[in-house]
From TrEMBL:
Leftover remarks: Carbon 2 of the heme B porphyrin ring is defined according to the Fischer nomenclature.
Name of the featured protein: Protoheme IX farnesyltransferase
UniProt topology in membrane: Multi-pass membrane protein
GO biological process: heme A biosynthetic process; heme O biosynthetic process
Gene from which this protein is expressed: ctaB1
Family: Belongs to the UbiA prenyltransferase family. Protoheme IX farnesyltransferase subfamily.
Task of the protein: Converts heme B (protoheme IX) to heme O by substitution of the vinyl group on carbon 2 of heme B porphyrin ring with a hydroxyethyl farnesyl side group.
Length: 317
């Protein structure tokens, strides 16, 4: 009497030959490579940039909204975001290795070399400029290239020397809605400035909260990100001051006719919430209060932009 036992492992799922093993190895390598490139691109930041740019495009299109120019502008601006991030990580490879929050980035972790990342940055930057020139317009291409140059060439190295780096970095950070505005054919006027101003001022409480939370890491890395030379409550007070300035600034689109009363009410409510969190941070400089400022900032910006886009469309209809 004989018995047979079925093999519980499906042979087709187990690599049996050198070719199978090589295929698995290639898949693993491609997956790791994709993760490294994704880390370089910072997709969450890129998504917020494209969203802000899209709102600017909608506002600048004067009711004549078309899809292809927006898609072309999105491609070009996305390439510029990748280029800026790559330049930043290549320049800060040494300081990134000294901080826990950045030591696992591709360069300090040894996954990519500085030369490789610089090459990606240059290719993306040139491609962005040429693509925008050919598919959108020269003004959008020049401004987009300017944001990359300012971010990588001035803001990033300035972080080692002066706390003014935050103000310099806020300029390219506030550019996305303006890029969308000019991509739609808008001019560089006070209306475009009103969009720029909102994002410019919004960034200060946001980044000051981050700088305060990671102040010890920045200090060890030799980066000057925290104003006040360590004076107690100085960071919170500066953040609160900017949050107050943001409230009247946020009403400029209403003044210039981009939106109506609905937007104004939403902007005021969100502005007071942002200011309240900053005020609490000024009174109690703690990690908990800093995180609340950060959360309020991340709630404020998409909320204001969505309200602006919605109310603009309402007025057009």
């Amino acid at each position: 009497m004989s018995t047979s036992v079925a093999n519980p492992v499906a042979p087709s799922k187990v690599p049996q030959t050198a070719a199978d093993l090589e295929h698995v190895d290639v898949q693993f390598s491609l997956s790791k490579l994709w993760e490294n490139y994704r880390e370089l691109a910072k997709p969450k930041i890129a998504l917020m940039v494209l969203f802000s740019m899209g709102v600017g495009y909608l506002l600048g299109s004067a009711g004549e909204w078309t899809l292809w120019p927006l898609l072309n502008a999105s491609v070009g601006v996305f390439l510029a975001v990748v280029a800026s991030s790559c330049f930043n990580q290549a320049i800060e490879a040494t300081t990134d290795s000294r901080m826990a929050r950045t030591k696992n980035r591709p360069i300090p972790a040894g996954k990519l070399t500085v030369q490789q990342v610089y090459l990606i940055a240059i290719v993306c930057s040139v491609s962005s400029f040429l693509y925008l020139v050919l598919t959108v317009n020269m003004l959008t291409a020049v401004l987009t290239l300017g944001t990359t140059v300012l971010y990588a060439g001035l803001y990033t190295p300035l972080k080692r020397y002066s706390v003014l780096c935050t103000a310099v970095g806020a300029i390219p950070g506030a550019a996305p809605p303006v890029l969308g505005w000019v991509a739609a054919g808008g001019q560089l006027n006070m209306v475009a400035f009103s969009l720029f101003a909102i994002l410019f001022v919004w960034q200060f409480p946001h980044f000051l909260a981050i700088a305060w939370m990671y102040r010890d890491e920045y200090l060890r890395a030799g980066l000057k990100m925290v104003p006040g030379s360590g004076r107690e409550q100085m960071v919170g007070r500066v953040a609160f001051a900017y949050s107050l300035v943001l409230i009247p600034i946020s009403l400029l689109p209403r003044h210039y006719g981009l939106a109506g009363d609905f937007y104004a009410v939403v902007a005021l409510i969100l502005g007071f919430i942002y200011a309240r969190s900053s005020w609490k941070f000024a009174k109690d400089e703690s990690r908990q209060q800093a995180r609340r400022v950060l959360f309020a900032s991340l709630f404020y910006l998409p909320g204001v932009l969505l309200a602006l886009a919605f109310d603009h469309l309402r007025l057009l209809s």
